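Every protein is a chain of amino acids, and every chain bends into a shape of its own. Below is the pair of lines this work produces for a single protein:
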Amino acid sequence: MTRLGYQIPNFTYPGVGSDGLFDAVKRQAIEAEQSGFDTVLVMDHFYQLPMLGAPDNAMLECYTLLAALAQHTERVRLSALVTGNTYRHPTLLAKIVTALDVVSHGRAQLGIGAGWFELEHDSLGFEFGTFTDRFEKLEEALKILTGMLRGERPSLDGKWYHVSEAINSPAPVRRIPIMIGGAGEKKTLRMVAQYADESNIICAPDEIPRKLAALAEHCERLGRDRSEITVTYQTSAVIAPTKEMAQQDLEAAVAAIPQLGGRAGSVILGGPDEVRAVYEKVLAAGVDGVTVNLPANGHVEGRVALLGETLAPLIG
């Protein structure tokens, strides 16, 4: 399971066009693997998110990208953070993730969530529905996915999905872990307790203990051993050899992509010492690990490696 994950959230880099884009992404994945990250994760979106750029900024389809990265890495697990359930029928998603597992020799992980980016749905023709609709779909999808990924032939005559004796062959090389993204205490964390191996949460740092307590309550009620579930905390950082250089990286990124300026107050920024100190506090709050992205300077050669070298010693 993920203890230290590197997420790639954007694909718009200064001076990099389509012909050089994969090489820029590949370099980040290789640096992540070599510096101590155990998982490489990418966005599952088709438009860039409003806090990271304009809708027409570059966005690569995640499973095609992950399959390509599998050919240039050897150890790291590969996952979306997280798959939008609304974008693919769960039987198709089971086949896609299994194919990723086969081509990566057993390194696939399924990260999944209910979906939320309405503009993307409306523009591209994916049904969005209500909040309740999306969570009902997610739960039905999890029933199908867990069966197909665990060697069963699930059938479901649900409100949203209808499948009969769904076959998944070939089988995954290894058991594919399931991560559910989100921190909703009533719905999301209950589904984590019922279906998942990992929970990836986004919340204010001081809310972490409450989220962990909610998950534990769901586990107790459902008869699930809480220790079976890994909890990771999603973060954004800007790291460089010195704090001054990190600030320069951020300013350059904001000049190129103004939307990143809205994240300036929430990123963990500094040299290795400053960044390490913040993550020590995050881990002390009780999570098992962290996922980290570098939206401002992950494309700068050496920055991902520096992040891994800084954080890997904190993960026991």
Q: What stands out?
A: The CA atoms of residues 72 and 196 lie 28 Å apart. The mean pLDDT is 96.
